[in-house]
Amino acid sequence: xxxxxxxxxxxxSVWTGPQPAAAExxxxxxxxxxxxxxxxxxxYREVVFFLAWRDFKVRYRQTYLGVLWAMLQPLVAMSVFxxxxxxxxxxxxxxxxYPLFVLCGLVPWNFFSRAVGSMAGSLVNNQELVxxxxxxxxxxxxxAMATCVTDMIVGLxxxxxxxxxxxxxPAPQVLFLPLFVLVMAASATGLGVALSxxxxxxxxxxxxxxxxxxxxxxxxxxxYPGNLVPHFWRPIYSLNPMVGIVEAVRWSVLGTPADWVMIxxxxxxxxxxxxxxxxxxxxxxxxxxxLI
Length: 292
Known about the structure:
64% of the residues lie in helices and 0% in strands. The chain contains 13 helices and no strands. It has helices at residues 38-43, 45-59, 69-89, 98-120, 122-125, 127-132, 139-165, 177-201, 205-217, 234-237, 241-254, 260-284, 288-291. It is globular, with a radius of gyration of 26 Å.
């Protein structure tokens, strides 16, 4: 009778086989870091697409024209430069119509300057992600550059449309254009990731980059041909990676003469900038959560 009010609990254990181990990421500060871990970047590739799509939507949010701004900006700049440098100053365009000549320089330059500017401030602008969530930090500046690819595609479409208006056709060597775009992306990546790492520690970089890019614009043959620079100064001048890239893009699209010494120096400069930028970023990455 004393046990009538008690309810016995029966525990049944059912074996369902071995359970998969939970995925975990081990962060070992003593481990020697690679310059770039492609396998890790590939595992987190969806984060790149997510951040790039988010930045793209934020850029054109609450605008009437949206992505058309990527077309209007080079058009307006082309018109202004054509009036002042093409008409009033009479700058040479190596036999090509000056509006096409300058637009062929503006499209790669706009991509480079926007990519570098966006990447330089990317870590600071995403500081909550850097402090709270683990993923390869290189993904943040890379997603910022990916957002600028859309602008470049629109710019190239505008360039080829303008060529039809002027009755011009792309040169046969236009097939080499993707190669020069890759070199341009390498230079933008190297400079952008280096500045993004430095900007975490020294926030003055965020103010210095836009100002510096305005100066470098006129140190790049966007509104004038590179052959206007005296021969003695061309090797030093070509250390600017965009010098050879702009000249190479014009050669591939418009068929204008190309200085292959300048293009070669700029290509080597781009590759060196890429390696140096990745090295700076890799060395600084561990301190990001503490500094940001």
